[in-house]
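=== RUN LOG ===
request id: a7f3
mode: sequence -> structure
chains: 1
length: 245
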Amino acid sequence: MRALRYLYRVPMMLWHVLLHLPVTLLLIVIGKGGPLSQAAVRWWSRGLLRVFGMKVERHGTPLPGGTMFVANHVSWIDIVALHSQHMMGFIAKSEIRSWPVVGWVTSHAETIYLQRGNGDSLGQVMAQMAQRLRNGRAVAAFPEGGTRNGSELGAFHARIFTAAVEADAPVQPVALCYGVHCQAQQIVAFAPREHFVGNFLRLLGEPARPVRVCFLEPILHTEHEGRRGIAQTARERVAQAMSMA
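=== RESULT ===
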């Protein structure tokens, strides 16, 4: 069955990249970051998920305007799943910029790149995030700090919430759940020593499965004692949503 799925998904992927992607980038340029650009990103992201046999089910509603979205991190496809529902500028590791297809799209989708292990880079990223939030633009981050094997939810690092506190912006947790009852988290996650291309090709041959994107109750920093309180509450809400999926 995997060979059969490759047989029809590879042509779908080529069509989506060679024809749909140029149209998407053109619309992004014409839209200048406005509603047209955002709609183009959502359209292309939904199409990419369909290529992989992933059907998105959205629960809840993303807040408009300057909101910080934070989600559990399973794989590179998390960014695509979130962009299929709402336009948000992600914090992503700088290596993604050189990834085929994904790097091209993320660079045109308001991504803020972070050089991991560089303290100065993190400070610059926080400043950019806070400014975007003040300007009424959405940003997004993965507070776990990186992908895991999909078997557990890691700790949410508090520092990432500094931008929301400084900009007086709400934080909306998002739970990403692959498969029925989140049973495919470990399948979607990077396998040991697996790189992007390997994960990409493996997922392309996987059976069709649902993807739940759950926008949860927002958090205001005035309701908690600083960024640590926000981080703890956000993680609790994500964990609860995943356990109920």
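=== NOTES ===
The first helix runs from residue 2 to 31.
DSSP finds nine helices and seven strands in the chain.
=== END ===
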